[in-house]
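**User:**
Everyone, produce one record:

**Assistant:**
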Amino acid sequence: MGVELRVHAFFPLLAFVCMGFSASEGMGRGLGLFMLLVVAVFVREAARLVTAAWLGLKLRAVLLIPIGGLFAYANPESQENANQGVGQFAMAFAGPIANGITGLILALTFLGAGGNVDLFSPPFITPANLIRSMVWLQFGMAIMHLLPAYPLDFGRLIRGSFARKNGFAPSGRIAAGLGQALALVAMLGGMMLRNPWLFFAGFFIMIGAQVEDQGVFFQTVVDTVRMREVMLTDFATLRPSDTLADALVRCVHSLQEDFPVVRGAELVGIVSRQRILDALRNDGNGYVQAVMSKGFQVAGPEDTLGTTIRRLTAGHGLALIPVTEEGRVVGVVSVQNLMSSMSLLAEQRRIERRDSEE
């Protein structure tokens, strides 16, 4: 449905942990317990996806971890709507309500079916009693997300209140730090009480908070960095009338993989080093005009990094986007140089911030 589904590496590894803890009851029961956790996550995320569709939120990807899913939104408008007003509360309560209702239906079904079904004797989640675990994993998932630890649902509401005063990015870092602190407390409590589920809950809350913090940082970068800050201004161009042999000579003396093709000041195409080389090998010498690509994307100096990345991914197999101003090429952005440019820009901003504080 256009949403990329990702699974964190720690999620499937938890299956082996469950089997290890259930060695006395049989590894099959441990695997069964893990599958019940997967079902609880599925119920939660299915409800949240339906809610997102109902609110008109466009998602780019969902990363699944054992405490639920982390959403990456396809555009700033969806991100903003998910963190404000009705959208914020709907997304925060959809998961806990779905898990709570599912747990209640399962409990009433098992109790109503009769027989010796004991749902209220600890431990509530254990491989020795999968029926009891089925019910309490649903309730546990719902209750956990009512804790004020980011990125849990109630923690997201707290972050939303911070965001109204401090902005989205600073509030995200504050909420992530609080979530990591509470996760550490849960992990220590789990070790002291010898409760593995409390320990693992804290561990995966910490993992989720770190992933969300990185996501907030990345979103801040892609929304604030402009092309004029990272584009290459020292670049080579080719002309449509250049021969492929001459173009190859230009390639030898340049680090570029792709070249803008200009006629006067007008951008008319893009050609790659490999395209030139293949044409020379297969067809002999010719002209750049015959092998250049006329289907290309361009960016403006004030376009954001996020906009340009989306254009790069839809760039017809080319790894370069010319930056144009009033029809004239003033710079280029390529996958090859983007990471190094971003690293240098981050260092530049760090130095400027330090100098301003002094």
Observations:
- The chain has 14 helices and seven strands.
- The chain has two domains: 4-224, 228-345.
- Strands lie at 4-7, 59-65, 68-73, 258-263, 266-272, 320-325, 328-334.
